[in-house]
User: What shape does this take?
Amino acid sequence: MGKTVNKSILLGHVGKDPEIHVLQADNTVANFTLATNDIYRDRMGESHETTEWHNLVAFGRTAEVVRDYVQKGSRIYVEGKLRTRSWDDRETGQKKYRTEIVILDLTLLSFNNGNENGADYSSENGNGARQVRRSNTQQHPGQDYAYSEQGGDPNEIPF
Amino acid sequence: MGKTVNKSILLGHVGKDPEIHVLQADNTVANFTLATNDIYRDRMGESHETTEWHNLVAFGRTAEVVRDYVQKGSRIYVEGKLRTRSWDDRETGQKKYRTEIVILDLTLLSFNNGNENGADYSSENGNGARQVRRSNTQQHPGQDYAYSEQGGDPNEIPF
Amino acid sequence: MGKTVNKSILLGHVGKDPEIHVLQADNTVANFTLATNDIYRDRMGESHETTEWHNLVAFGRTAEVVRDYVQKGSRIYVEGKLRTRSWDDRETGQKKYRTEIVILDLTLLSFNNGNENGADYSSENGNGARQVRRSNTQQHPGQDYAYSEQGGDPNEIPF
Amino acid sequence: MGKTVNKSILLGHVGKDPEIHVLQADNTVANFTLATNDIYRDRMGESHETTEWHNLVAFGRTAEVVRDYVQKGSRIYVEGKLRTRSWDDRETGQKKYRTEIVILDLTLLSFNNGNENGADYSSENGNGARQVRRSNTQQHPGQDYAYSEQGGDPNEIPF
DNA sequence: TTTT
DNA sequence: TTTT
Assistant: This one.
């Protein structure tokens, strides 16, 4: 029940591997970008394509799913809300703004780098199951967290 | 038909009277801000309300509707797409960003300053009809345009 | 987190006063219809308007809000999910279907019978506050429930 | 610009190969069903999954895309509007209803039977390109139409 | 009738 | 800068 509505729906490809930060023991944050494409026709009737880049952020359980299953090239569906943060730039003293979509719902549409037709990953583990990243400490060596196995079958993918 | 989706749905109140610009004879642009509210509960269980401000932009026919019917305090429903523009700041040389929602569909939910229950405006023209702004030259004296009466009953409100 | 998406967004006017049923002590159900309009142009270029009627259903707390604030003519924004129920018709033995939108989010856009500009209701209580129906036993005499005052300021409207 | 909103967003799997009908030379119609899943927890805390079936219909150019690229098992994203048709049943004389989603926007999320990771089809044509159905006369032998090659590169997939 |  |  709300007086207002703030909802965004995006479907596109992830621009780079998510950055993961652990704020507190209990709160993971994931930041990444998502590309959507717009096709328009100019006055001469020629078709052009532009790419729009969106800043996405996820918290908590959703951030853990991002950490474990989303990477550069992944195709995802996202539902969220817009949020604009502002701060004073240290150097120039100017007000700066950054608009983000806070993810409230996430659907994975591809695995292994967004290549919807590749067959390479099944050969990696030889059993046909989806291989997931349960840690990415190499990419973010400063972090120290463990995937919570409790509360569900560890072999069950949570989406 | 598209490979990606870029859709935002907003319902809220307009922060101030739209700024109207006429780029060419044929292309009106309207810029304004929209507020949405978010209620969240902090760790102490106390309820807080934040306001999110969105930059909206409309073009063409939609901008004309904004010019004529939207004002500070109006409650509106908007469907659009996200667009982030960037430019180099003249003074500092820094890259700056501004994210906007380009309006693709607009529904007016209130008239006369968003007061959904006020009866004052009907007394202004004494006939119970909705009174609309067909020009706002006072607010934007530098502009010179006329509302196009052709293509429809001038008494018909186009939404 | 989900593998699929089932989401409907409707904004329109309520066709008749909601029917309220109390299944158990704890679970109120509200059923009503919502009209949306579609304007289309036929092959001759003439404009036509059709009305689409949607079956809406709300449960629990949301149903209580519907009971107390929604009536015939109310303009509302609704977000929900589609659900199709089927049963065998007693007389004919035929399979029958009914598709409903289960309300997940509700925003009231008007008060007093959807008349967004009326001033009559404020004269009813003489204090400018919105008057709400806290019971509708006349309309639904078979029911016996009371609006729960606990859990919040009884003068606070919950949306 | 509209007074009301009637919008549905679905992401799921296609239940069976679309039925294609050609009403006139110029108007193709495609009918098919789409499954979405809902997970809920009962009073005992046990998790259950239900499947919701949606009736989808596409017209014109969109129907041609459905005809050529959508099949049983395909995963798709759809945006559309709800429409309920009614008729009197010939046998019983009863009023019957059928609610459909009229597709306004369609995004294909998988190829070859929804297997997002399968590599089998690329071996069918040996060049790694997506293989599309440009006719389905076997399935609908009564029809006689040809995919329009004009208006674009015939090798370009239109979404 | 889909999918995980 | 809106609104309740």
Remarks:
- Residues 156-157, 159 of chain C lie near DNA strand F (CB under 10 Å from a C1').
- Chain C touches chain B at residues 9, 11, 75, 77, 107, 109-112, 116-119, 121-122 (CB under 8 Å).
